Amino acid sequence: MERTLDDSANRRLTIPQSFLATDAILILYRNVVEGLVVYPKVIARHLDEELPFMATEEILMAGVRAGGDRQVLHESIRVHSLEAAKMVKEFGQPNDLLKRLKGDPEFAKADLTSALDARRFVGRAPEQVDAFIANVITPIRQRYADELNQSADELRV
C-alpha cells in the first residue's frame, strides 16, 4: 500500500508520534508522583476551612431536628454563609460560619459539631478505593514489578 492514502505521510508521522507523546506523558506523570509529598495537617486545615460551607445541608437538618423552622433556618444559613464567604474572600479572614451559626439563637439547640464530620460526606469511597487497589492495581503492580523499579529521571523524546 505504499504511496496510497493509507500510507500517507500523515499516518507515518502521527501514529509513532502519538506513542512517543504517551510515553513522555507517563514519564512526566511518574516524575510528579515520585516527588509528591502529602501534608495531612495542611489538608485538614483546608478541609476545616471549607467543610462548614459544604455541610450547610447537614447543619440545616440538625437545626430542624432540634425543633427549628426549616425556612427560617435556611434563611439564617444563607445570610451567615454570605457574610462568612465575604470575610474569607475579600478580607482573607478564616471561615467563621460555624461560629456565626452557633451564636445564632435559631441554632441554639442544634448539635452542629456532629454535622461537620467529614466522614459523612464520602459515602462508600474508602471501600471502593480499597477494592480497586486490591483487585486492579495490585495485580498490575505484581505483573510489572521489575519495570516499577526503573528510574524516570528525565524526559526522553
Task: Identify the notable features of this structure and list them briefly.
mainly alpha; Ribonucleotide Reductase Protein R1, domain 1; 68% helix; elongated
What does this structure look like?
- The chain is an all-alpha fold.
- It has 2 domains: 5-37 and 124-148, no CATH class; 40-121, Ribonucleotide Reductase Protein R1, domain 1 (Orthogonal Bundle), CATH 1.10.40.
- It has 8 helices and no strands.
- The longest helix has 26 residues, at 9-34.
- The two termini are 29 Å apart.
- The mean pLDDT is 88.
Secondary structure class reads mainly alpha
**What is the strand tally?**
0
What's the total helix number? 8
**What is the strand content?**
under 5%
**Major sheet, described briefly?**
none
User: How would the global form be characterised?
Assistant: elongated
Q: Quote the distance from N terminus to C terminus.
A: 29 Å
Rounded average pLDDT = 88
CATH topology-level name of the largest domain: Ribonucleotide Reductase Protein R1, domain 1
CATH class (first level) name of the largest domain: Mainly Alpha
Number of domains: 2
Order of helices and strands: HHHHHHHH
In percent, how helical is the residue content? Answer: 55-70%
**What is the CATH architecture annotation of the largest domain?**
Orthogonal Bundle
